[in-house]
Amino acid sequence: MGCYECCMRCLGGVPYISLVATLLCFSGIALFCGCGHQALTESERLIETYFARDHQDYITLAYLIEYFQYIIYGLASFFFLYCVILLAEGFYTTSAARQSFGEFRSTVCGRCLSTTFIVITYFLVVVWLLVFSLSALPVYFFYNMANTCHTINILSETPSSINQLCIDARQYGLLPWSAVPGKACGMTLSNVCKTREFFLTYDLYIAAFAGAGMTVLALLTYTVSTTYNFAVLRYLGRKGISPRC
After folding, report:
1. GO molecular function terms here (predicted)?
2. pLDDT digits (tens, 9 = 90+) for 157-215
């Protein structure tokens, strides 16, 4: 066998769909965890500076942010390992692995592994659809805030009107109703929207939202890949035909 045939044979055993899903998952998790972690930190700073004067008013929010950041650390570690395992499972169910371990053993073990990963990945898809939906909430909050600031800038010549335009953090559940002031109105709100912290936090939440969407897409791709591997190992394994996903 020549070098070209050997290379083509090796490339033919690469699980390209699993490889693409792995890269997509790594990128999505990196965006969600990295940007989400920093966005939570910046959000606490914004609330502390502009919406709450007493530390006791946002201490619950501060604890929640800290807990979420620890969860982000765990998510990053878990998905790094899980994506590597899924990629290895994709390689395992190719012809190269089948030649190494034997036809019967590869079919039985591959079928069990594929079934396990299908169940786990389906569960993760449901969880991340929920995470994807929840990650849209801070984007919605900052979008409303930016839109209100834009309206204030347009109506800046009528101070009596702009003072009625407010963003109340208490309405979004970020602060208790006893928090003072709890809201920002008029030019005060407009000045908040012009700060570096506001733009940075808004962009970070958008990036985290996009990262969650990329992760959902990667998990759906993994689901297709593992389901395909399971079907091929079950119905075509005895004929020596191996999956390429």
Report:
1. structural constituent of myelin sheath
2. 666 677 788 888 888 888 888 888 888 888 888 888 889 999 999 999 999 999 999 99
Tell me if 158 sits within 8 A of 186, measured CB to CB: no
**pTM, 2 dp:** 0.83
Tell me which amino acid residue 67 is.
Answer: Y
Give residue 9's identity as a one-letter amino acid code: R
Q: How many angstroms separate the CA atoms of 77 and 75, rounded?
A: 5
Tell which residue, 107, 115, 108, has the closest CA to residue 242. 107
Domain-wise residue ranges, the chain: 19-82+133-234
3-state DSSP of 11-53: HHCCCHHHHHHHHHHHHHHHHHHHHHHHHHHHHHHHHHHHHEC
Handedness of CA 55, 58, 59, 62 (dihedral sign): negative
